[in-house]
Amino acid sequence: MKKGIRVLLARLGLDAHWRGSIVVAHALRDAGMEVIYIGNQMPKEIVETAIQEDVDIIGLSSLSGNHMILAPEVVKILREKGMRETPVVLGGTVPPDDIPRLKEAGIVGVFGPGSSLKEIIQFISGAKGT
Amino acid sequence: MRPKRNLFNTESIDKIRKKGEKWQRQVYPTEKQRQEVFETLSGIPIEPIYSPTHLAEMDYLRDLGFPGEEPFVRGVHPTMYRGRTWTHRQLAGFGPPEETNKRYKFLLKQGATGINGVFDYPTLRGYDSTDPEAYADVGRGGVAIDTVEDMRILFDGIPLDHVSSSLVTCQPIGNISVQSMYFANAQAQEIPFSELRGTSQNDFLMETAVAIAPEVFPPRASFKFSCDAIEYCTKHVPRWNPVSFAGYNYREAGCTAIQEVAFVIANAIACSEELIRRGLNVDRFAPRLSFFFSGHSDFFEEIAKYRAARRIWYRMMKERFGAKDPRSLALRFHVQTAGVALTAQQPLNNIARAAYHALSAVLGGAQSVHIDAYDEALCTPTELSSLTALRTQQILQLETRVTHTIDPLGGSYFIESLTNQLEEKIVALLNEIEAMGGIVKSVEKGWIHKEISSAAYECQKAIESGEMPIVGVNCYKIEDEKLPVELFRVPETLEVQRAKLEKIKKERNSTNVQKALDTILHCCEKDGNLMEVVVEAVKAHVTEGEVTKMLKRFYGTWNPPLF
């Protein structure tokens, strides 16, 4: 397990579900990562915090269905700000049909319902700096 | 106090105990158990067999009684489902009100007996569809409502004096505007408030602990909004249930059955104390306090949970608050089958899951039930999945005959023993909250957030270790599964809402709007009842977002200690 990976976790937009992202936050912390959990934010604020905190990876959570609009926006703003290397992953109720379009938009990992913490931890450990 | 009368005589109990112990020592171990430990979903150990020895202390009349009578464990109505069956209240809401109105009418035409309206994320959180935070969530998870005109469209052609409406407003901030719009719309149609029947969710834990979105109001402010709505309805809308303590959502966030009941009752205690402080007699408001529970996977524990909740509530209202009206003492509740128990994998399996969940709710004496649609782990329900859920209710009611006798599992050694154990654990947790200074304090301190998130984390670990089997997720998986269901896509909402908002803002009387907003601020300053002024404000076409901004200006926001 890699140590010291700094992960920013945010919930997108007005989505009120926190269970998934908090469970992931606990699991990442127990796996030795540093978790910066900022709750709900809009894409611009997420990117600003990511830059300020100099994180290695950004994890987004959405169960409201807003992911097709807001997740690609995070990647777009991130790239505009010059953070070309920082990977972005997404978890939540993402219908499988949406995954190819999210990948195309630059989301490197998508974790739908039923994903295990183990696979999320492994993915983040591997995705850092890719 | 009358002398305690046990259900069984001491001599019989002794004989049964001796025989039972011998059986457990000599007969039971002759075969191997398939696992070492058996326990309920909330962690109560389950024994191989239950017998009268488990109920040796039980006094039938004191602990169970008869339906419609104290302590209401066997049911809140004398006839229960032999008289009227539970309300089939299927949740519906998406897109603009024009679209949801069609779904309401479809469900009513198909035999739904009440409306269960859910609102989109911006509406729940007090935003207008056109606010800069809202664009990605408009029309999602529920219907978009910005002004009283949207409310008129939502209920167009539905007789508000005949159909009861549950408004799933979730949080007091969303509730204060949405409920006001519902009442104002009724008034515009000249339907007197006394004819309105329905329920609002209006639970401050939804805002501050369970479902959190940006710019949360401080717990005390949110709690005040909730109590304002209860007080307002008690005085003006007597047949309306102004709060539905949302244990369902606490459970969805991670709570166990024990926490679910303890937290709703702690919340109801706090509201009751506040309303009494405001000068209301307990029997004026308590008959209209209602509860909302989750129908989860542990079949027997859920049945026992509902029965235990009724006994705890009865004792609490009687002993602590001195309530006398039987309707104050009887805990009435709606059940939704557990959304978190649904799987995105092999989604048609969810039809079977939700049917078991609903059966436990009915065996537990629910007043109203929503059955989740099979596609809810993936999207907003389609017309087909909503209809299948409604038909599942109708099959349960009409074909299974579980409705023919009241509390059919009452007297089961196991169910009664589990009811007693749950009661004991829930009361212990209630005492812990009490010692902390009550539910509002427990939120301010972040204690409740920690309780819920730890339970959620433990649950996920149990799923991953395989200790908690979930068919299709950690066993009986299908690799590269092709989804057998059609997914719902939310219709265009933002532009529809924007057009209406622009038109209303252009046409409304801006002096009246300003006056209404000033009145709201003034009401905040003198700590008046906000419902009184918001009902008037929405009549002047003040938008939900404008109401919220005014309240935020006065009460500020709070950062919930989630992690």
What is the structure about, briefly put?
The complex is a heterodimer of chains A (130) and B (563). Chain A has one domain: Rossmann fold (3-Layer(aba) Sandwich).
Provide structural commentary:
- Chain A has one domain (6-127): 3-Layer(aba) Sandwich (Rossmann fold).
- Chain A is built from 5 helices and 5 strands.
- Chain A has helices at 19-30, 43-53, 67-80, 99-104, 117-127, and strands at residues 6-12, 34-41, 57-62, 88-92, 109-111.
- In chain A, 55% of the residues are buried.
- Chain B contains 22 helices and 10 strands.
- In chain B, helix 3 (97-109) links the parallel strand 2 and strand 3 (115-118).
- The termini of chain B are far apart.
**CATH-level-4 superfamily name of chain A:** Cobalamin-binding domain
Strand content of chain A: 15-25%
Strand order of the largest sheet of chain B: 1-10-9-8-7
Stretches of chain A where pLDDT is under 50 for at least 5 consecutive residues are none
Order of helices and strands of chain A: EHEHEHEHEH
Could you say what the CATH architecture of the domain at 62-162 and 241-465 in chain B is?
A: Alpha-Beta Barrel
Q: Report the biggest beta sheet of chain A as strand number plus sense, adding barrel if it closes.
A: 5 strands, parallel
The geometry of chain B reads as: globular
CATH topology of chain A: Rossmann fold
Average pLDDT figure of chain B: 95
- Please estimate the helix content of chain A: 40-55%
Sheet/helix structural class of chain A:
alpha/beta
Q: In which range does the helix fraction of chain B lie?
A: 40-55%
Strand percentage of chain B lies at 5-15%
What is the overall number of helices of chain B?
22
